[in-house]
Design brief:
2 domains; five-stranded parallel beta sheet
Amino acid sequence: MRPSGAARIVADRTPATANEAEVFLAPYWLADQGDNVNTDGAWDIVQFHPSYNYDDFVRGVRMQVDNRDAVFRVTDGPLLRMAKRARQNPEAKFVMIVDEINRANLAAVLGELIYALEYRESRVSLQYGEGADATICIPDNLFIIGTMNTADRSIGHIDYAVRRRFSFVPLIPDPAVVKAFYPDTQEQLSKIALAAFDKVAALFTGPKAQLTSDYKARDVQPGHSYFLAKDETDLGFKLKYQVFPLLREYVSDGVLHQAADKLIEQMEKEGDPV
């Protein structure tokens, strides 16, 4: 269900549940545009990282080469470029996806846009620009979707001022997604994938869970995207080189008890792909 009136969404996800946000959410928000609506550049995706800043995302001064001379020009970032396209096409919907939104200092990256995101159609002054170009408002037809990995404890939490401007939607590991992914012609692969999902999930929830008390399953359990594969070889590769190494790292980091190491080893020995 699309949240009513919510133009700013953060998909709160565990490892490998990002597909919903990056693959499915953008087309979903852009559905039913109509044949006569200009949807060129209707969605874009950027990835935040610790060195990402206001000049990268909103507007900054860039060095460019003009006739072999270095010149400095004020250049719009992806957010302002998308906002301008949205304003020029008010009947269309536009989506900006920010992957790993919690990896940057959001308050510093957004700057005065924190206000503009909440109070749509209200103009705010930008740090760079002159005349009419010195202000901007974010139109209502621009949706911003962020994804954040709840397992990444090395990244600071989103501060409350920024958090108030977003609606948070949890994306938790779901076996129903695994089941729905496979067509009837891949019934056997579906059973194998679901069995693998259940074995991994048992380390995090249930009577034999190995999760330590400092962590919650909804934050660290490997997501269902790991179990979506084109064939058994693909599934086996994901388990061997992505899921099992992640589980062993969890043991090393104290996310799972040491006893989980034997259970992981048993899963590895039970056959290919699980």
